[in-house]
Amino acid sequence: MDPLTDVRQISGIAYGFIASKTLFAALNLDLFGRLSARARTLAELSDEMGIPEHRLLTLLTACVSLGLISQEQGRYANAPASEAYLVRSAPAYFGDYFRFQIDRQIYPLLLNLDEALQGRAKQSRYAQMFNPAEAEYFTRAQHAGSLGPAAVLQKAVDLPGARRMLDVAGGSGAFSITLCRRHPQLRATILDFPAVIEVAKRFVQEAGFEGRVDYIAGNAVTQAWPGSQDVVLMSYLLSAVDGSAMRRLFIKAFQALEPGGLLLIHDFMVDDDRSGPRSAALWFMTFLFDPGAVSFTPSELVALAQGAGFVGASVRELIPGITRLLVARKPS
User: Which of 98, 154, 260, 273 is most solvent-facing, going by the fewest CB within 10 Å?
Assistant: First the structure.
């Protein structure tokens, strides 16, 4: 990212949260779903949503300015991206990820970012995983947010002959479901907090894979891992744990794998020179509420993999500008 040269660029950063909250409000009101069937007038939307026209007009104007919707001859319609990703009935619907994780959990947490930087945070980001209601919201949101990366990962990595996969901190089971669908011979085990496991069971059952997915309820850092695995997957785990636990997780993965087994680590990573990318760097800010959490680079993870005994470690981009995938193998 080039250094900023204009105060208006700084203002764009400072005011960015207003755009975020505008999107969240529109999602919570199901505005995009209401505009999916046909374009609507202000009066029609006001009657249907029970919001006075003068208030709703302000929201619609803001959404038009952001490019989320369009307005022509007094009728409002979804932008193409909003129709594809923000309508609840759409196959690629992504809105619950924004509604439940970003708006409901991450946004309020960041109100105390100053305290987190000073080590005075009152709540760990993942303390909510022990609360069944909050675990429900988080896991539902994470499922929507993980299906896309899981689809990319299953195309990027082939698993010929793999029979057993341990999905560590597997959340909703999005990766397990996707990889089991791609590889008919594969059986997965999801390890995660008890409240998360209960939600994952529902997603797995809905997908029709309950006979091929097992569960272990526990903390990934302290829980014993089953052995004889052909694949160990850790997605969004390293960014969420104490930095001092990372080496231990690599060692546990090595011990859990069969000779020749594959380690897959999907997570946020910043460039080796720590100049970006912006999205990954900003995501690491959300983990500051866990005092020991650290940001990391591809080279740092490769070194940890090699230190645990893995060979052939390589890193590739998975979600452009946000996440990367480390692939390494236990020697045969």
Answer: 273
